[in-house]
## 1
Amino acid sequence: MLINKVYERIFKIWRVKRLKRFMELFTPKPTDTILDVGGYPQTWTVLPQVAERIDCLNLKTYPWEQEQDFPEHRIKIIEGNACKMPYPDNAYPIGFSNSVIEHVGDYEAQKAFAREILRVAPKVWVQTPAYECPIEPHYLAPFMHWYPAGLRRSIARWFTPWGLMAKPTKAEVDEMVDTTRLLTKREMRELFPDCTIITERMLGVIPKSYVAYRT
């Protein structure tokens, strides 16, 4: 799909740069297992194997993402709810999540997501797009996340690059509006009170995304 190719080209450089920073800060051991909450194998295949195993947890799995498709990497694909994970406390050495918490629902659901990843891993890395950035990265359009939900529903299909390229149905527009909630820096501090918050910036000035990490 054209929109997926556009996303890949725009965000690949940022993802690789961010992953390298994660590696520098966390330096996973060869014996560590990393829980990638809401993540996909492609996040990790840009680098050599970085840990004993990467477990990618998602609400559902997809036929085009099978463990055997990545023979150079030890990746396990798991179905599960990020807001209610079936793991004991500190089950994983490292919990990782990239651009997921903004999709789990309302602020209460985001609180549950944060509590869970902080519970299941002593070390965590959670990235999310910044609400303060004027460009909404999912619609690829300015100011969309600042508009009321009703206005977003009205203009998303015909007045955003996402709508014009993806050609979403009304149900898909509704899903995008209902399941995308960007976080402010203040909210990130509230959700991750014992974490350091990094601000990634565009042009050295504009907040692009936030990373909460605990090592």
## 2
Amino acid sequence: MAATLPGESSRGGEWQPGLRESALFDRNVIAEIQRAAREGIYDIRGFGAKRRLPHFDDLLFLGASVSRYPLEGYRERCDTNVTLGTRFASKPLELKIPITIAGMSFGALSAPAKEALGRAATEVGTSTTTGDGGMTPEERGHSKLLVYQLLPSRYGMNPDDLRKADAIEVVVGQGAKPGGGGMLLGHKISDRVAAMRDLPKGIDQRSACRHPDWTGPDDLEIKIGELREITDWEKPIFVKVGATRTYYDVQLAVKAGADVIVVDGMQGGTAATQDVFIEHVGIPTLCALPLAVQALQELGLHREVQLVVSGGIRSGADVAKALALGADAVSIGTAALIAMGDNSPDYETEYRKIGTSAGFYDDWQAGRDPAGISTQDDELASRFDPVLGGRKVANYLRVLTLETQTLARACGKSHVHNLEPEDLVALTIEASLMARVPLAGMQLPLIDELAVRVAPRVAGERDRPAARR
């Protein structure tokens, strides 16, 4: 859905005293109905869900006081390291920080942008991930730790590149479009992208929504076994799922032999797909995370199988809250692109020319990003400096880490992974029920609080003689 720019009306009319807009048919809804009637095709866009969803902002930390003591920020350590893939792999990923860079394809992003992500991850001691379309030499050359995605499309799939990777991520689904395949519109299919994906240049590409050689959890177990044989049991095997039936998906992936589970909430981004998918399929990261933790705990494998969560991670507060709810690490995508300069106001005039405005993120599918990040246009891509872009993302990752440490110390924790649900309270009933933490001012998670307060009354009412009711 095209953005309504500041000061503009998608209806064409102006508000006057006495006129009242509909909450149901607001300006963007009306504009989309008119666009659909005019063009006869569903809206395709990038980015992620723009509706208001329950998220980590609905949680607060309970800093230490009398009942527990905080740590001094500059004198007492608060460690951040994490190891991913300890279950079966002989060479797990040793990360200095619990923040990784998510899979974003060469095709969706320019080659310099992919290089910048590799540089940033290497500088701060974490991993980055390939994406649909394969591995580029620039990305591998500048990434100390690189996760290779195996996707349903198999675009760019190369067994030699797979062996060069430090881990393999079997992608079952994506938070922005679980149950659906990806899209890369024709103006992003350059000569190089076409060659890597074995596709004709300039033709819209639609990725498959399921893997061609397996259809269920039994087949997934066989596929994971094949990947282990190819990599001599050295490389960790990740399984990534879009957040839907998270509890069952996680249990099945773990039973199939995954070392690491990646759960991507519906706030995650995408290069391009149907708007109706982005806004109406999947569940928020906030409720998917506790379901994944529950699944691992019931199998007795929480922490032995590591859990990575993505979808809407923006700040150190988001990172710390995800860790407190049971994640071992988080993964960022959209935020990394913003950090390197995507949708910079420096290019406002050019964003206006392509029908959007800096900060609205309605251009990812278009392939004409003036910042040179989400484009395959050589002239535009040449504007982007991968060294400077990598430094910006590295700085951003450092800030996320420092913020996470700050919150952990405030809660009296000497390691960020010591954060726990009892360090959190919720501001809304929704968030309390989803995150399974107390509503602010209560002592227990809301559902338990209700059980304690209401159940005795119900039982007492049930036991009273009928004549006295």
